[in-house]
Amino acid sequence: MVGEMNEPPYRARQITEWLYHKRVNSFDEMTDLPHPFRVRLSDEFAFGKIEIVRVLGSRDTTRKFLFRLGDGALVESVLIPASPALYGSRSDRRTICLSTQVGCAYGCKFCASGLEGFSRNLKPHEILEQIIAVERESGEKVDNIVFMGMGEPLANFDNVMRAVRIINAQWGLGIGARHITLSTSGLAPQIRKLADEPLQVRLAISLHGATDEVRNQIMPINRRYNLDTLLEACAYYAKRKKQRLTFEYILIDRVNDTPDQARRLGQIARRLGAKVNLIPYNTVQGLPWSRPSSEQQTQFLSILRASGVPATLRREKGHDIEAACGQLRLQTKRELEAATP
Ligand code: SAH
Ligand code: SF4
User: Which residue has its alpha carbon closest to ligand 1 atom 22?
Assistant: First the structure.
C-alpha cells in the first residue's frame, strides 16, 4: 500500500513499528511520518474499531473478553494464564484463544458457536486486534496463540494466514510459528493446503469421536470428509511438517466416552504419532449434553495411556466463567435480546 502512495519503502517499516510495537491508536501519533502523509493515511484507512464489551474472570485465572467489532458483531477471546503443557508449549506461556469468524457454519451439535449459524469471516486486522486489545487491557504479553475461539479457522483460510504471518513476523508480533496452533473440525482439503504452506504452525484436530458412527452423530462435517479422509490428510500434514499433531477430544457423557472409543482413539493416535488432549465437556445452556463423571474421564485417560499415547486430561479452568467457545457471546446476545422488546 505504501508503494502505491509514492512514499519511500521504509515508510512501511515505520508504520508497522507504530502499529505492532508501539501500539498507537491513530495515524496522528506516528510522529516520524511527515504530517501530509499522516493526513492521507487517515483519509484512506480506518483504525479498526474493536471495543471490549465485557471481561469475565480476574488476574491469574482464565479471563474472557467479549468484543464488539466495527459492524456491531460480537466475538470473544480467552486469555489463559501460564500453566504447564498447554498447546504447543512446555510451560509458562500466556495463551490467547482467538476467534476467526462471527458464528460458525459447521454446526457441531455440542458447540455454542454454531448455534446461531454463520455470519461472516473476520478480517486479518480483526483477528490481530483481539490480541492487541487483550494485551492492552490485561497489561500482559501474550506468547502463545491458539485459534480455538469462535469459528472454523481453515474455512477463513486466507485471512487467518495473513494474520498468522503478521503474528509471526519480527516486524509484527514476533511470536514463533511453533507457538501458534490452528484448530480444525476436520476440513481435509484445507489441512493439505496448510501442509503446503511454508510456516511451521501447529495443528490440532477436533476429533471428538474415533469412528464415523460417533462423529456423524455430533459433527456434520464428518459426512463431507469422513474419518479415513480426515486421517489421510492428517498423516500428510504430519509427514510434510515433521510434526506431532494434537487430537482434541471433548468427553461427552454417553456419546463418545466408552472404553471402545478410547481404544480406537488410542490406535488412531499411535498410528499417526499424535498426542491427545482430553477436555471434559462444558455444558451449553439449551443443549442436552454433559460431561462424564471424573471416574469415567480418568478411565478413558488410562486406556489411552495404556496404549502408549501421550495424553492429557484438561482440568477445565474456565468452566465457571462460560469459557468454552461461543458461550459468552451467546449468553450476552440472549441478554441483549431479552432487554430489547
Ligand atoms: N472450529 C474449530 C476451532 C474452534 S472450536 C474446531 O472445531 O476445532 C475449539 C475447540 O472447542 C474445539 O475442539 C471444539 O470442539 C471445542 N468445543 C466446542 N464447544 C465446546 C464445549 N461446549 N465444551 C468443550 N469444548 C468445546
Ligand atoms: Fe464450528 Fe468448531 Fe464449534 Fe464445530 S466446534 S461448530 S467447527 S466452532
Answer: 282
